């Protein structure tokens, strides 16, 4: 099976712009979670989508949003970018039922200047 | 809510020596426990997991971990490390609510030198 893929791998944006990141989960997985990784805060949970519905949400401002499509692919959007949004954004997929392990993609490195 | 504490931010060790990376967690409910490894410029790879059953869990690349409920610990061990084990290791916990959300520790950088 192909693993989790994320596009793009690297992105440079300017403060105030918005950005959309994409994640394709492992075939058959219905849950997609997003995490932000920074040197200062470590790995923090953003949100989880299961069958096109947001099932859980972390403690991030409303500028961070996401969605999931019927084929389980997910996108996350960050509006009005701030310098502090520079991070590695990781997507993880999971069957979403009784198996709890998550499989991570390579991440998208976002740099905000 | 859960929390995870990885007691060492960095662990230097010589090749072929044993290593233990420490992880303690806090939770008011039953949890599932995981160790992930991250190589430079890559995502996270699952090393091993504890869901239930035997408290000694074996994972990939010769790693193992032991779940100790009374001490709320899940330490990762390897009897003999290789240069290629140099990476950052993350301990994570998930509750049994049915959601997939992981709470991670801050990570431990394992530095293996010849």
Give short descriptive properties of this protein.
heterodimer, A: 113 residues, mainly beta, seven-stranded mixed β-sheet, B: 114 residues, 53% strand
Overview of this protein structure:
- The complex is a heterodimer of chains A (113) and B (114).
- Chain A is mostly beta strands.
- Chain A has strands at 5-7, 10-13, 19-24, 31-38, 42-50, 53-57, 64-68, 74-78, 87-94, 103-104, 108-112.
- In chain A, a hairpin with an 8-residue loop joins strand 9 and strand 10 (103-104).
- Chain A starts with a strand and ends with a strand.
- Chain B is mainly beta and 114 residues long.
- Chain B contains no helices and twelve strands.
- In chain B, the strands form three sheets. In chain B, strands 2, 5, 6, 10, 11 and 12 form a six-stranded mixed β-sheet that branches.
- The mean pLDDT of chain B is 93.
- Classes of the chains: A mainly beta (113), B mainly beta (114).
- At the A-B interface, strand 4, strand 5, strand 9 and strand 10 of A face strand 5, strand 6 and strand 11 of B.
Largest sheet of chain B: 6 strands, mixed
Strand content of chain A: over 45%
User: What percentage of the residues of chain B does DSSP assign to strands (E)?
Assistant: over 45%
The radius of gyration of chain A is: 13 Å
Task: Compute the average pLDDT of chain A.
Answer: 93
Per DSSP, the total helix count of chain B is 0
Structural class of chain B: mainly beta
Strand tally of chain A is 11
How far apart the termini of chain B lie comes to: 41 Å
For the termini of chain A, the CA-CA separation is 37 Å
């Amino acid at each position: 099976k192909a693993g989790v893929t994320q596009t793009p791998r690297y992105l440079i944006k300017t403060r105030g712009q918005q950005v959309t990141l994409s994640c394709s989960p492992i075939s058959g997985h219905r849950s997609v979670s997003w995490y932000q990784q920074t040197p200062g805060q470590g790995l923090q949970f953003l949100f989880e989508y299961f069958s096109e519905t947001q099932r859980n949400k972390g403690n991030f401002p409303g500028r961070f949003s996401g969605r999931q499509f019927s084929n389980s692919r997910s996108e996350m959007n960050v509006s009005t970018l701030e310098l502090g949004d520079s991070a590695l954004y990781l997507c993880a997929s999971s069957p979403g039922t009784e198996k709890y392990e998550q499989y991570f993609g390579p991440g998208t490195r976002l740099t905000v200047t | 809510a859960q929390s995870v504490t990885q007691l060492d931010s960095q662990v230097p060790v010589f090749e072929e020596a044993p290593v233990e990376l420490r992880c303690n967690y806090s939770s008011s409910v039953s949890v599932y426990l995981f160790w992930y490894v991250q190589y430079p410029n890559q995502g996270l790879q699952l090393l091993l997991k504890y869901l239930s059953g035997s408290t000694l869990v074996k994972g990939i690349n010769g790693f193992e971990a032991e779940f100790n409920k009374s001490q709320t610990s899940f330490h990762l061990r390897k009897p003999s490390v290789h240069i290629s084990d140099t990476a950052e290791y993350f301990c994570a916990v998930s509750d049994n609510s049915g959601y997939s959300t992981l709470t991670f520790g801050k990570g431990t950088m394992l530095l293996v030198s010849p």
